[in-house]
Amino acid sequence: MKDKSMKNQKGVVLFFALIVLILMTLIGVALAVNSTQSLRMAGAGAERIEANAIANGALDSVINKYKGAAFANMMVSQPDSLLGGKQRLVPMPWDGTVKDVSCQRSSKANGANLISCRRLEVESVRAFGRENLGQLEVVAGIEQEVLTGS
Per the database record, which ranges form the Type 4 fimbrial biogenesis protein PilX N-terminal domain (predicted)? Predict the structure, then answer.
Protein backbone atom coordinates (compact mmCIF):
# COMPACT_ATOMS: atom_id res chain seq x y z
CA MET A 1 0.00 0.00 0.00
CA LYS A 2 2.82 2.35 0.80
CA ASP A 3 4.53 1.76 -2.56
CA LYS A 4 1.43 2.79 -4.49
CA SER A 5 1.12 6.16 -2.76
CA MET A 6 4.81 6.92 -3.37
CA LYS A 7 4.41 6.46 -7.12
CA ASN A 8 1.54 8.95 -7.18
CA GLN A 9 3.56 11.49 -5.16
CA LYS A 10 6.48 11.57 -7.61
CA GLY A 11 4.33 12.94 -10.44
CA VAL A 12 2.86 15.69 -8.26
CA VAL A 13 6.31 16.93 -7.17
CA LEU A 14 7.45 17.08 -10.79
CA PHE A 15 4.35 19.04 -11.76
CA PHE A 16 4.88 21.62 -9.00
CA ALA A 17 8.59 21.87 -9.82
CA LEU A 18 7.74 22.70 -13.45
CA ILE A 19 5.23 25.36 -12.37
CA VAL A 20 7.83 26.99 -10.08
CA LEU A 21 10.38 26.86 -12.91
CA ILE A 22 7.95 28.55 -15.30
CA LEU A 23 7.18 31.27 -12.73
CA MET A 24 10.88 31.94 -12.12
CA THR A 25 11.48 32.17 -15.89
CA LEU A 26 8.66 34.71 -16.27
CA ILE A 27 10.06 36.80 -13.42
CA GLY A 28 13.53 36.70 -14.98
CA VAL A 29 12.22 37.80 -18.39
CA ALA A 30 10.22 40.65 -16.80
CA LEU A 31 13.30 41.89 -14.94
CA ALA A 32 15.41 41.75 -18.11
CA VAL A 33 12.83 43.81 -20.05
CA ASN A 34 12.59 46.30 -17.19
CA SER A 35 16.36 46.79 -17.03
CA THR A 36 16.54 47.27 -20.82
CA GLN A 37 13.90 50.00 -20.65
CA SER A 38 15.73 51.65 -17.77
CA LEU A 39 18.95 51.70 -19.78
CA ARG A 40 17.16 53.27 -22.75
CA MET A 41 15.64 55.97 -20.56
CA ALA A 42 19.00 56.73 -18.96
CA GLY A 43 20.59 56.96 -22.41
CA ALA A 44 17.88 59.36 -23.60
CA GLY A 45 18.43 61.54 -20.53
CA ALA A 46 22.17 61.61 -21.17
CA GLU A 47 21.60 62.58 -24.82
CA ARG A 48 19.34 65.45 -23.72
CA ILE A 49 21.94 66.71 -21.24
CA GLU A 50 24.61 66.51 -23.95
CA ALA A 51 22.37 68.39 -26.42
CA ASN A 52 21.75 71.09 -23.80
CA ALA A 53 25.49 71.53 -23.21
CA ILE A 54 26.16 71.74 -26.96
CA ALA A 55 23.32 74.23 -27.51
CA ASN A 56 24.60 76.43 -24.68
CA GLY A 57 28.14 76.23 -26.07
CA ALA A 58 26.91 77.19 -29.54
CA LEU A 59 24.94 80.08 -28.00
CA ASP A 60 28.11 81.34 -26.31
CA SER A 61 30.09 80.89 -29.53
CA VAL A 62 27.63 82.85 -31.66
CA ILE A 63 27.51 85.65 -29.07
CA ASN A 64 31.31 85.80 -29.10
CA LYS A 65 31.38 85.74 -32.91
CA TYR A 66 29.04 88.74 -33.33
CA LYS A 67 29.97 90.82 -30.27
CA GLY A 68 30.42 94.60 -30.27
CA ALA A 69 29.43 96.70 -33.25
CA ALA A 70 27.97 93.71 -35.11
CA PHE A 71 25.39 93.32 -32.32
CA ALA A 72 24.69 97.01 -31.99
CA ASN A 73 24.06 97.56 -35.72
CA MET A 74 22.26 94.34 -36.63
CA MET A 75 19.01 95.15 -38.45
CA VAL A 76 17.83 91.78 -39.81
CA SER A 77 17.71 88.25 -38.47
CA GLN A 78 21.09 86.55 -38.82
CA PRO A 79 21.17 82.74 -39.16
CA ASP A 80 24.28 80.78 -38.24
CA SER A 81 25.33 77.16 -37.82
CA LEU A 82 27.81 76.20 -35.12
CA LEU A 83 28.59 72.90 -33.36
CA GLY A 84 26.10 70.92 -35.43
CA GLY A 85 23.10 73.05 -34.48
CA LYS A 86 21.28 76.09 -35.80
CA GLN A 87 21.53 79.53 -34.28
CA ARG A 88 19.63 82.70 -35.06
CA LEU A 89 20.15 86.28 -33.92
CA VAL A 90 17.04 88.45 -34.03
CA PRO A 91 17.18 92.21 -33.39
CA MET A 92 14.38 93.51 -31.19
CA PRO A 93 11.92 94.88 -32.03
CA TRP A 94 11.37 92.57 -35.00
CA ASP A 95 10.28 95.26 -37.45
CA GLY A 96 13.70 95.63 -39.13
CA THR A 97 14.68 98.93 -37.50
CA VAL A 98 17.45 99.67 -35.05
CA LYS A 99 15.92 101.25 -31.98
CA ASP A 100 17.58 102.61 -28.90
CA VAL A 101 15.80 101.67 -25.68
CA SER A 102 16.53 102.27 -22.02
CA CYS A 103 18.87 99.74 -20.48
CA GLN A 104 17.20 97.32 -18.10
CA ARG A 105 20.22 96.20 -16.10
CA SER A 106 22.48 99.22 -16.11
CA SER A 107 23.44 100.72 -12.77
CA LYS A 108 25.35 103.59 -14.39
CA ALA A 109 24.10 107.13 -14.02
CA ASN A 110 22.27 108.11 -17.16
CA GLY A 111 20.82 111.54 -16.35
CA ALA A 112 21.80 113.08 -19.67
CA ASN A 113 20.43 110.13 -21.67
CA LEU A 114 23.83 109.52 -23.24
CA ILE A 115 23.72 105.74 -22.96
CA SER A 116 20.97 103.57 -24.35
CA CYS A 117 20.75 99.91 -25.33
CA ARG A 118 19.94 97.79 -28.34
CA ARG A 119 18.41 94.38 -27.77
CA LEU A 120 18.83 91.07 -29.53
CA GLU A 121 17.38 87.63 -29.02
CA VAL A 122 19.75 84.73 -29.68
CA GLU A 123 18.44 81.20 -30.04
CA SER A 124 20.29 77.94 -30.48
CA VAL A 125 18.52 74.76 -31.61
CA ARG A 126 20.03 71.28 -31.35
CA ALA A 127 18.50 67.98 -32.49
CA PHE A 128 19.14 64.86 -30.40
CA GLY A 129 17.96 61.32 -29.84
CA ARG A 130 17.27 58.41 -32.14
CA GLU A 131 17.11 59.70 -35.72
CA ASN A 132 17.30 63.26 -34.30
CA LEU A 133 13.62 63.21 -33.35
CA GLY A 134 14.16 65.35 -30.23
CA GLN A 135 14.80 69.07 -30.45
CA LEU A 136 16.17 71.33 -27.75
CA GLU A 137 16.08 75.13 -27.99
CA VAL A 138 18.01 77.59 -25.81
CA VAL A 139 17.11 81.30 -26.01
CA ALA A 140 18.96 84.27 -24.51
CA GLY A 141 18.37 88.00 -24.61
CA ILE A 142 21.24 90.45 -25.01
CA GLU A 143 21.50 94.18 -24.41
CA GLN A 144 24.34 96.10 -26.04
CA GLU A 145 25.08 99.52 -24.56
CA VAL A 146 25.52 102.26 -27.15
CA LEU A 147 25.83 106.01 -27.11
CA THR A 148 22.43 107.51 -27.86
CA GLY A 149 22.05 108.39 -31.54
CA SER A 150 25.07 106.37 -32.74
Answer: 10-58
- Condensed to tens digits (0 to 9), the pLDDT of residues 18-72 reads 999 999 999 999 999 888 888 888 888 888 888 889 888 888 888 888 887 777 7
Is 118 buried (19+), middle (13-18) or exposed (0-12) by CB count in 10 A?
buried
pLDDT tens digits, 92-136:
876 666 677 777 766 565 556 677 778 888 898 988 888 888 888
pTM above threshold 0.85? no
* Amino acid, single-letter form, for residue 88: R
Burial label, 120 (beta-carbon count in 10 A; 0-12, 13-18, 19+)? buried
